[in-house]
Amino acid sequence: MPQSEWFDYQELLHNSSFCLVPRGRRLGSFRFLEALQAACIPVILSNGWELPFSEVIDWRKAAIVGDERLLLQVPSITRSVGRDRILALRQQTQFLWDAYFSSVAKIVLTTLEKPLMWNSLPGGLYALPQYSTDPAQFPFYYGILGKSPSQQFTAVIHTVTPLQSQVSPVVKLIIAVAKSKFCAQIVVLWNCDKPLPPRNKWPSTSVPLTVIEGHTKMMSSRFFPHDVILTDAVLSLDEDSVLSTNEVDFAFIVWQGFPERIVGYPARSHYWDSSRSRWGYTSKWTNDYSMVLTGAAFYHRYYHYLFTHYIPASLLTMVDHMANCEDILMNFLVSAVTKQPPIKVTQKKQYKETMMSQGSKTSRWADPDHFAQRQTCMNVLSHWLGFMPLVHSQMRLDPVLFRDQVSILRKKYRDIERL
């Protein structure tokens, strides 16, 4: 064949909708798997062949099984498949490949799970059985099971500075959060080097207020799965976050519709720096974002367990050593699991107390190395995963009638527009 008529096999494979997988000694070990990897729908032509893990994986969602005795019918079968189903089949090939077959480690770690977990994102390997064997306890399966998350949340406030007075930022934050009708309890993680204040120094609230003194004082401990957290939803807060009760309520209502994602206020983004061949981190206000920082965000309590027990100890040590990047690491984890971006609510950009921002010596944001460390973290974490999991989004959710020229009495979250 003349060189001008040569074809690139990998290019053909990745540009094809269907790939024939005939009978052969390399069928199970290679041809079938390379079709999955390329998002090419396998057309199985091997009567009686048992597909991998077929007792739990529903291969009808990712492959077409033909009859090798009726080869002439294959073209008409593939032509009859509509575009919507082709897209669904190809998406399922990518899910199954990434979840179970993309590495030797994943194949070895693949164990028998419930068919629901095997055939739905994020797959059985991210639903740790040590946490629960009941799919209803994981945020990924609420929609499939027709279940809704609990109607209340637990606020977890990470505190690293002393409680100086009743007008301290953390006191005002506790009072605002406690007024939410959805708040079940408030947990204060005392990671300050100063002694724990007596109980009478904390504000009186209508919901239980629990103060947990951190023994390690490490940054990663803010995501430890404490037994005291009983609600599905966790509202993660920095001590100097500024949120009104209306903002808390609205963000929680939004999270209930997206319980598998991070939902909150402070948005950040990542980008590829081609001049340095590395990933970059930016806090500039643009039209898209890929992270929502955990200084003011809701997420499911399962991510505390996954953060503590799934992420390698070396990465947690890096976060603790820098006293930085724990929020980036949580965003990497959730995006890697869900393959989806977080959700930003309202146009609010500033979420910190002015006194605790750049000018305070006790604020880690005042450290000139803080931003540089976050740039380093982006690349260390992407190297650990082997890919960049963060997904950009331009979606922002606002309350109904937000900024509309109608009477304020018609608006449910009236205070949000004044902030």
Outline, from the CA principal axes?
A: elongated
Give the helices and strands as they follow along the chain: HEHEEHHHHHEHEEEHEEEEEHHHEHE
**Number of E-type strands:** 14
Structure class: alpha/beta
Discrete helix count: 13
How much of the residues is beta strand, in percent? Answer: 15-25%
| Biggest pleated sheet | 8 strands, mixed
Which architecture name of the largest domain does CATH use?
A: Alpha-Beta Complex
CATH topology of the largest domain: Spore Coat Polysaccharide Biosynthesis Protein SpsA, Chain A
N-end to C-end Cα span: 71 Å
- Please identify which CATH superfamily of the largest domain we are dealing with: Spore Coat Polysaccharide Biosynthesis Protein SpsA, Chain A
Query: Residue share in helices?
Result: 25-40%
3D architecture notes:
Residues 153-402 form the Glycosyl transferase domain. One of its GO terms (molecular function) is N-acetylglucosaminyl-proteoglycan 4-beta-glucuronosyltransferase activity. It is found in: Endoplasmic reticulum membrane. With 419 residues, the protein is of the alpha/beta class. It has two domains: 7-112, Glycogen Phosphorylase B (Rossmann fold, 3-Layer(aba) Sandwich); 148-410, Spore Coat Polysaccharide Biosynthesis Protein SpsA, Chain A. It is 31% helix and 15% strand. The protein contains 13 helices and 14 strands. The chain has helices at 9-14, 27-37, 74-79, 83-101, 104-109, 115-118, 142-145, 169-178, 245-257, 302-310, 313-322, 326-338, 369-385, and strands at 18-22, 41-45, 64-65, 153-159, 183-190, 209-213, 233-238, 263-264, 267-273, 278-282, 291-292, 296-300, 343-345, 396-397. The chain has an eight-stranded mixed beta sheet, sandwiched between helices. β13 (343-345), α13 and β14 (396-397) form a beta-alpha-beta unit. Mean pLDDT is 86; it is low at 354-362.
